[in-house]
Each structure stands twice: as structure tokens, then as C-alpha cells.
Amino acid sequence: MTTMVPIIDFDACSLARSKVASDRLPELARSLLKSLSVDGVVILKNHGIDEKEIRSAFDLSDEFFRSPADNKLLFEAKSEDNFKIGYAHSGTERYSRVKNFREAFRLRPGTHSTIDTVVPGFVKAQQLLFTSMGKLVQRLVRLLAIGLEIDENVFTDKFKKMGEEGNSSYMMHNWYTTEQSFDKSGEAIRLFGHFDNSALTLLVTSKHPGLQFRNREGEWSDVPPSGDNIIVLIGQIMEAWTEDKLKAPFHRVTFPERDQGTDNRMSCAFFAIPDNAHTICSIHGSEKYPPFKPDVFFVDKLNVLYK
Ligand SMILES: [Fe+2]
């Protein structure tokens, strides 16, 4: 059975608006919360990020991934960096103990200022998209708080420094090669099943199918390629923060037969993490989730994932 992913019309909160349409917020907040409460995944349309801005960041990261290996390795992630910011070449990362055949580039504003020497225009394009994604996160978490009927600033207050020192949120470009991994049942997989350890993940993908989440019935269900929309996933930080009212979906990327042997699949994920200085307490003081530091929580989960 395939579950349809709920589509949310974000127009009332679109970034194309200088001010949100306040009179429409309660309805949008209710609808967003209700939809995310089902399986932890929604598709946002009319989000207001310019399609050209997304295309430009995608095209320039594609150009980077197609550049000579020696150039890419100049930006390789340092092994001592807990967040793995920088370039990772294919097969170096093991997810759930199995090799992933994808190249990846994790970045934050200011982390790779010399990359324009390899791909002119890269820095500005990524900075622009990062900033827009950060603004969208601010609007999304405000709506979630309204929907949860708590102080609407409870979440937004914790995301004030995205893109600055003191916040660990990052953007990750993925470039899946045409090599395959296989799961235990022999199914071709591009990325093994996992939970995201962020608060929210915002995702855009190339035209390639394959993203799936496990629905309430425990069955894999397709998420269509994003097109002009943005896919939003709940992460484990938000799950703990809301005491399981919003659950992080288990998800993976398969390698459908019709897509095999063709070109590379690309995606860009924005992992929103609250500012490092805060201690996150569950909204009603749950004992299941004791207070935690978001950056420490994130890295602990990342280490489990890549063990
Ligand atoms: Fe993920």
C-alpha cells in the first residue's frame, strides 16, 4: 500500500511575502500539525523560495561533484570534525555498517570560502539557499508551536543563529552514483533506512524516484521527487522536544530498476538544529526525554548511524 504524502499549501507563510498572512496562520498551523502528526513527512508547495535559487545551488554542486577528484579532495571533511563538514567521496561513509555509494558535501556559510576557485559562484549560491532554508525553518517551527497550542516563540527562540557561530545546522548536497548497495533482502538501495537526527529536515531532490518512508502500517511508502516543492521530515530532536507528538519517520532511498544505469541522483538536505547554547526541554517536561544539548544530541546520533 502506498500512503499519499500530505501536501501543504504554504502560501500564507510563503517567503515571497514580506509578512505572513496572520489571519490565515491558525488554519495553516492546524493543518501542518495534523499532517505531520500522521507519518512525520509532508510536501510544501508555494513555499516562496525562488526555483532559480534552488536550481543554481543544485547545478553548481553538480559541477563540483563532476570536477577532478584532486580538486574535490581539497575540501575533504576532517576526520576530527564531528559534523563531517566538507566533502566525502563515494564509499567512504558506512551507514548502518554498509557502504553508501554517494558523494556528499556538507556546508555552512563561511566554511569553504575558496571553493569558488574550483566552481565560480558556488559560495554565493549556497549561502543564498542556506539563508532561505533557515527562514523557512523559522516559519515552520512557529506554526508548529501555534498548532501545539504552546507559546508561539518556544521553538523560534532556539533557532536565532542559523548560519552563524553558535548554531550547528548545515546543508548537505548528495550525489548518488550508479553503483548499488543491497539490503538484507537483496533489494537495491542507495541509502539505508535511518531516522534524521535534526529537529526538521528540508529536502529537495532531482527528478529521480526512490525516497521512501515507513508508514503507520509499517510498510514502505514512496515520497515523490520534490519538483518545485520542498519535502519536510520530522527529526529526532523535534520528536524528543514534542514528547513523541511529532515522530521522526524511518526513511531510505531505493534504487528502482527503471532508474538503474542512468544518471546520478541528487538531493539537497537542510538539517535544522537548535542553537548550541540552549538546553532543550520537552514541551511538557517529559521524563522519557531528559533535557539535552542539541549539538551533543545530534552528534551522538550521527555516531550511532555511521558506526
Ligand atoms: Fe535522512
Automatic annotation (TrEMBL):
PROSITE patterns, sorted: FE2OG_OXY
Gene3D superfamilies named in the record: B-lactam Antibiotic, Isopenicillin N Synthase, Chain (2.60.120.330)
InterPro entries, A to Z: DIOX_N, IPNS-like_FE2OG_OXY, IPNS-like_sf, Iron_ascorbate_oxido_reductase, Oxoglu/Fe-dep_dioxygenase_dom
Domain of life: Eukaryota
Keyword presence, Transit peptide: no
This protein's UniProt keywords: Iron, Metal-binding, Oxidoreductase
Residue span, Fe2OG dioxygenase domain: 167-274
Any Pfam family: 2OG-FeII_Oxy
Signal peptide: none
Protein family according to the UniProt entry: Belongs to the iron/ascorbate-dependent oxidoreductase family.
UniProt-recorded name of the protein: UPF0676 protein C1494.01-like
Species: Saccoglossus kowalevskii
